[in-house]
Amino acid sequence: MKLIFRLGGIAALVAGLVILAVLPFATSFVEQWARRDVELRSRLVFSTARDQIVDLMVRNDTEQIDRLFERVATDERVLAIGYCDGQELLFPTKNMPGSFSCAQAARSDSETFSTIRADDRDVLVSAFPLKANGRTGHLVVLHDMSYVQRRGAQARNYIFLALAGVALGAAALVAAIALLIMRRWLASVRQAIENVRAGTPPLPHSDDLPAIGKEIHDVLQELDATRRTIDAAHTDWSPDALRAALSNELSGSEVIVVSNREPYIHNRTDNGITLQIPASGLVAALEPITRACGGTWVAHGSGTADRETVDTYDRVAVPPGHPSYTLRRVWLTEEEQDGYYYGAANEGLWPLCHIAFVRPVFRETDWRMYRAVNAKFADAVVAEAKREDPVVLVQDYHFALLPRMIRERLPRATIVTFWHIPWPNAETFGICPWREEIIDGLLGSSILGFHTQAHCNHFLEAVDAYVESRIDRERDAVTYGGEETLIRPYPISIEWPPAALAGQKSVEECRAAVRQRLGLPPEMRLGVGIERFDYTKGIIDRMKAIDTLLTDYPEWKGHFVFAQVAAPTRSKLANYRQLQEEAEALARDINVRHGTEGYEPIKLLVRHHEPDEVFELFRAADLCVVSSLHDGMNLVAKEFVAARDDEAGVLILSAFAGASRELAEALIVNPYNAHAMGEAFNRALTMPLGEQRERMRLMRDQVRERNVYRWAGQMLLAASRLRKRQRIRRVIAESRRRASAYA
Ligand code: G6P
Questions:
Q1: Which UniProt keywords apply (predicted)?
Q2: Confidence of residue 144 (pLDDT cuts 50, 70, 90)
Q3: pTM for the predicted model, two decimal places
Q4: Contact 587, 543 (CB under 8 A)
Q5: Which atom of ligand 1 is nearest to the CA of 631?
Q6: What is the rounded average pLDDT of the residues 280-290?
Q7: Residue 246: per-residue pLDDT
Q8: How far apart are CA 321 and CA 455, in angstroms?
Q9: Regarding beta strands 78-85 and 88-90, do their DSSP bridges make them parallel or antiparallel, or are they unpaired?
Q10: Who has the most CB within 10 Å: 229, 336, 421, 683?
Q11: Probe ligand 1: pick from 259, 261, 631, 656, max atoms within 8 Å of CB?
Q12: What residues have CB less than 8 Å from 59, skipping those under 6 apart?
């Protein structure tokens, strides 16, 4: 309403200014018109009386002249009449102003009109040449012009009233039109809001949509188009493509990655400070992404020389030698690590989510430490953020509470959380004493990602079962505490081509080198398994399968060796120590039972291997086994495929690893079934090269296309779409607020 009054007021003001500008012209026009009228009357007087005057002058009848002049002067407009003989005024009528003299009248051979001031009023003096008795004088007729001014003033009043009437009418008309446009505009904005809310596609272009509403529709259409282009661009993801997508979609945005494990660990050794790249799928996936995006990676500084290599702000530029992003280290005390990392994360959440039949341990003291460490990382993220709306990529089960903590301090941040391990079904998750707090923490995210749709579904079931929220099943979105979180599957992957492949020798050379190092004859068939020494990986189970193979197919004795690389991990925990002991004992037992002089079927290599060594092993192998009892994705499987540019080699893959959804051409096994897995070993060892190539080619295509740049690209583009939607929502909310203030 205010707006309507304002517009009406503006229209009235404009009309008023027009009146002010027009009024003087109108008045002067009226005055000129009145003067011409008076001049005409003077002429009439002169032409009517001229002959009579000349006649009376010839007769020198002054008395009659006086009478005639007095008679003419009775006309209400005529003030006085006289005759100028040279400078002498003759026969002046009685109303002739005393101050008037013939010198004041402009005289010439033709009629003249001039205005003089006499007795405080304007007087028009008309002078007409008149010849009598051989002499030329001038008849002067004086008109009182004050009535002209009165008429001008009157006209001004009338015109003013008329124009004011028109102005008021125009203002009312403008207000009525504005009211009409406003109503349509509001209806259109409301419609746009409803469309955004309902998630329905924008309305098609229509000429009669009011401009603002149409603009909103256009932005939505653009958003829709962006989504289609991005969805179509699912091939050819590379660092450049990711960088291009980021600079198009998130230009000027600040990216902060948070994980527990740091990508580069500095350790003090006898040879000085050495650099270690940890054996972690998470690091393998995120490091190339952060290199491509730049930004900051916040992580626990766990190396023995980490403190010596940071600046005063606990930052170090990495990768060493070619820095492209900042690693910000967070320091944890031994007590914090025990409670948060070993306790809550790895004795509680890890076994809870993996269902590898290791009982989770939930200690309240661990949970308190977990909460405190999450808060410590929230402080670090807030301190590193240069803007109020960074894109924060929170990684994994170490930070279930962090998204909420960041959301509270940076409400405009786009928080994308990725849960790198499986999410169990709601019933299993329900045993966790911290289940509500974990869900609440994760729902602080803008987007929450899992490897598979099944994990997303499990999470939604848990939300449904344990917190008050609204779940939109069609969009896989949860509205909780007024905020929306999108739940999405993003299958993680590896960089393509992998950096570790760059320096590799030919497959033949790798085969020869590895066999020589392991003390094996050149023709020995070789299987490999490479992972952290973790009970979820099914290391014991695959050894049992090898036992079965050598029992059921004894012809492989002496002709097949399995190299198990196991990087020690979380050794502080009893479960991990026991696993290592059990695996070593089982390997010894199998080697005793199936080995012969100079032949050990299982080679257990318990140490961390750098990526180059891992890739050399992959290239040297005939088969690779990934027999996880449960795994979010498993990148070892993908790395093996990526390492085999000769398209040979067989992958034996657990049905319970997320990777089995994508790598369907592997030999898919149930790791709990030792007999069937033994059969799979035999099948792999006897698979013709043609079949190996066919399978490997398809798997390589899959890993090439669905590489880690696509994983990150899809998440970041989803974040960008969300930011655009939120921007539009803010614009709409603002225009709605304004509209309701006006209405
Ligand atoms: C694997 C899992 C990740 C996890 C990491 C932790 O890579 O897939 O989800 O974050 O292990 O390993 P760490 O050695 O840091 O405990």
A1: Membrane, Transmembrane, Transmembrane helix
A2: confident
A3: 0.71
A4: yes
A5: 8
A6: 85
A7: 82
A8: 39
A9: antiparallel
A10: 421
A11: 261
A12: none
658 within ligand 1 shell (Cβ under 6 A)? no
The pLDDT value recorded for residue 151 is: 80
If you measure from the C-alpha of residue 312 to the centroid of ligand 1, how many angstroms do you get, rounded to a whole number? 29
For residue 526, what is the enclosing H or E element?
strand 525-532
Residue 418 has which token pair?
Answer: 């990725």
Q: Is residue 281 part of a domain?
A: yes
The reply to whether ligand 1 has any atom less than 6 angstroms from the CB of 420 is: yes
Q: Is the CB of 354 under 6 A from ligand 1?
A: no
Handedness of CA 626, 629, 633, 635 (dihedral sign): negative
Q: Give the containing element (helix H, strand E) for 161.
A: helix 146-198
State in Å: Cα 353 to ligand 1 middle.
13
**CB of residue 723 inside a 6 A radius of ligand 1:** no
Do 293 and 394 lie in one domain? The reply is: yes
Q: With bands split at pLDDT 50, 70 and 90, how would you rate the model's confidence at 315?
A: very high
Residue 395 CA: nearest ligand 1 atom is: 10
Class of residue 680 by CB neighbours under 10 A (exposed 0-12, middle 13-18, buried 19+): buried
Rounded distance between C-alpha atoms, residue 96 and residue 648, angstroms: 132
Domain count, the chain: 2
Clarify whether residues 460 and 416 are in a common domain: yes
Residues 307 and 418 occupy one common structural domain: yes
Q: Which of 265, 277, 280 to mutate to test the pocket of ligand 1 (most atoms within 8 A of CB)?
A: 280
Strand residue runs (E) in 361-444: 391-395, 414-418
pLDDT tens column, 32-47:
888 888 888 888 888 8
Q: Which residue, by CA, sits nearest to atom 6 of ligand 1?
A: 280
User: What does the pLDDT read at residue 662?
Assistant: 97
Same domain (yes/no): 290, 439: yes
Same structural domain, 279 and 388? yes
Our answer on whether the CB atom of 282 is closer than 6 Å to any ligand 1 atom is: yes
Residue 26 banded pLDDT, cuts 50, 70, 90: confident
Instruction: Evaluate: CB of 261 within 6 angstroms of ligand 1.
Output: yes
Helix H or strand E segment including 211: helix 211-232
Q: Which atom of ligand 1 is nearest to the CA of 282?
A: 7
Q: Which two tokens stand for residue 9?
A: 């007021």
Alpha helices in 595-628 (DSSP H): 611-620
**pLDDT tens profile 75-110:** 877 889 999 988 889 999 998 998 888 888 877 888
Q: Which atom of ligand 1 is nearest to the CA of 281?
A: 7
Beta bridge partner(s), residue 256: 296, 392
Task: Report the amino acid identity of residue 378.
Answer: A
Contacts of 332 (CB under 8 A, 6+ apart): 300, 340, 341, 373, 376
Q: Please, what is the angle between helix 239-249 and helix 281-293, to 10°?
A: 60
**What is the amino acid identity at position 351?**
P
Q: Is the beta carbon of 498 within 6 A of some atom in ligand 1? A: no
The answer, yes or no, to whether residue 343 has pLDDT greater than 80, is yes
Q: Flag whether 352 is in a domain.
A: yes
Q: What is d(CA 351, CA 560) in angstroms, rounded to the nearest whole number?
A: 33
CA of 280 to the centre of ligand 1 (A): 5
Q: How far is the CA of 562 from the centre of ligand 1 (A)?
A: 25
Q: Which atom of ligand 1 approaches the CA of 569 most closely?
A: 14
Both tokens assigned to 354: 């993996």
Tell me whether residue 77 is in a domain: no
Query: Domain of 458: which CATH number?
Result: 3.40.50.2000
- Tell whether ligand 1 has an atom less than 6 A from the beta carbon of residue 302: no
Q: What is the domain range of residue 260?
A: 253-489
Same domain, 433 and 540: no
The residue whose CA has the least distance to atom 5 of ligand 1 is: 280
Give the residue whose CA is nearest to atom 9 of ligand 1. 420
Ligand 1 binding pocket includes 280 (Cβ within 6 Å):
yes
Which atom number of ligand 1 is nearest to the Cα of residue 283?
A: 7
Q: What tokens appear for 85 in the block?
A: 């003989």
The H or E element that residue 515 is part of is helix 507-518
Statement to judge: residues 591 and 616 lie in one domain: yes
Considering the domain architecture, whether residues 408 and 477 belong to the same structural domain is answered as: yes
Give the amino acid at 340. Answer: Y
